[in-house]
Amino acid sequence: MELNELVKIRRSCRRYIDAQVKEEDVKEIIECARLAASWKNSQTGRYYVALSEEAKKAVYEALPDFNRRSSANAAYIVASFKKGLSGGIGEGKMSEEGDLWGAYDLGLQNSYLMLKASELGYDTLIMGLRDVEALRTYFAIPEDEIIMPVIAIGKRENELKLGARKQLDEILKIR
Ligand SMILES: Cc1cc2nc3c(=O)[nH]c(=O)nc-3n(C[C@H](O)[C@H](O)[C@H](O)COP(=O)(O)O)c2cc1C
């Protein structure tokens, strides 16, 4: 599928049908995310995926009510990154933005992740509101990783529309 088409198909999905997310598809999706650019190729992104009923319930319970409602029937991908590496400028020092670069790299990877998921016929929802400590405990995520979004993944129940976007001249300056 062409990139412009994929970008339009990907919309935040907040109602999922009860459909299985295949493990082989998850691997293909993360393989694609793996190819994104990162600071000095530091590749600090990590993924923890809930496909079993037990794991899905654990992640579901780590979400606030409105995100639970939006992601019922979905599987989950928890994305984190190793801190203190991306943004490094040598001799153990970090650039002034520090771990923001790790978050930046993870965002790049997650864009690939979501577009690949769309290509394979899945829908996604990034959720920034979640109980980080519950997720850390369940997946045994090391303390040197910063846990970022939970991404719901599944199949849409209803049509999804593109939300309003700023005009190009509001976000772009060319000189
Ligand atoms: C960092 C980030 C955090 C978000 N957190 C949530 C969330 O907790 N719950 C939710 O329903 N949507 C969340 N969203 C989805 C946004 O609301 C959505 O991307 C935006 O409204 C644009 O819609 P679109 O994704 O369909 O283009 C989040 C998106 C991003 C990028």
What is the overall number of helices?
A: 7
- Percent helix range: 25-40%
Query: What is the correct CATH architecture?
Result: 3-Layer(aba) Sandwich
Structural class: alpha+beta
CATH class: Alpha Beta
How many structurally independent domains? 1
SS strand fraction: 15-25%
Unreliable spans are: none
What does this 3D model show about the protein?
The chain is 38% helix and 22% strand. The chain is of the alpha+beta class and 175 residues long. The chain has a single domain, classed as NADH Oxidase. The strands form two sheets. Strands 1, 2, 3, 6 and 7 form a five-stranded antiparallel sheet that branches. Strands 4-5 form a two-stranded antiparallel sheet. The longest helix has 20 residues, at 100-119. Residues 11-12, 14, 67, 70, 125-129, 149, 163 line the site of flavin mononucleotide (FMN).
List keywords for this structure.
two-stranded antiparallel sheet, alpha+beta, NADH Oxidase, five-stranded antiparallel sheet, 7 helices, binds flavin mononucleotide, 175 residues
Question: Short summary of the structure?
Answer:
With 175 residues, the chain is an alpha+beta fold.
Layout: helices, strands, pairs:
Layout: H1 3-9, E1 16-17, H2 23-33, E2 45-50, H3 53-61, H4 65-71, E3 75-82, E4 88-90, E5 93-94, H5 100-119, E6 123-127, H6 132-139, E7 145-156, H7 168-171
Antiparallel strand pairs: 1-7, 2-3, 3-7, 4-5, 6-7
Helix pairs in contact: 1-5, 2-5
The structure holds flavin mononucleotide.
